[in-house]
Write a structure and sequence with these properties.
260 residues; 7-stranded parallel sheet; binds nicotinamide-adenine-dinucleotide; Rossmann fold
Amino acid sequence: MGFLNGKRILVTGIANTRSIAYGIAQVLHREGAELAFTYPNNKLKLRIKKYSNNFNSNIICPCNVSNDDSITQLFIELKKYWSTFDGFIHAIAFAPSNQLNGDYVSVINRESFIIAHDISCYSFVALAKACRNMLNVHASLVTLTYLGAQRAIPNYNVMGLAKASLEANTKYMANSMGPDGIRVNAISPGPIRTLASSGIANFKKMLSYYESYAPMRKNVTIEDIGNTAAFLCSNLSAAITGEVIYVDGGFNITHTNKLE
Ligand code: NAD
């Protein structure tokens, strides 16, 4: 008996087995949740199908969050399997790669600002808005943010702004949906090598810096993030909403600006 028995959770953002969303799916599955998955384009469909089988699921739905019709279609499709469900994991972010390298003010431009905020922040509330009437009481929505929302971290640049907006989004969503018994939280992981993070300049240096200076003196894993996400999806966290929970070995409490 897992602590998520009877819960139905939609997982977005799996690109491969290194994805944070994959680690989250592993723990949600371990704790007994039924899972459904999205894939952003046809190129990834077969891969996500294969992964879904690892989690005893046959529910995979296309969804590119940059497109409103695609979001609407996602829930029309999901409704064929689940008339209601208990929450989703939003593990989606994107900024053009030229934004994640170099001096912030020099590299920023209007188009990249809009894209980063649209895909990495607006998509969270867009998904919530589209499935609101399918969410059970006690449903839980979980997104992934990063410390770059709070501190100016070299090369994180426009993604830091998008994450700051995502953290505010989490609070506003929590306040809006709380009266319906729905909770909304963000997890802020330390750096983990994934497809998305490999686009950030000097990412390797960041990993070794965290390992040296985080109080726990080690980097976090996708399983660490999965454990916290599972807790947030469960009734064990019934009184927690609108929070950003750091899962970073304590790095965020240290006093250092030397991350470069
Ligand atoms: P990842 O590359 O495995 O996942 C990013 C996902 O975003 C991919 O599955 C990709 O398909 C999806 N995506 C991008 N644009 C999309 C779109 N238009 N529609 C639908 N899906 C789209 O990388 P990850 O590191 O697992 O990222 C997951 C989340 O964790 C992101 O929000 C990221 O910012 C956050 N995060 C990552 C780290 C880290 O160090 N890896 C640290 C803190 C926060």
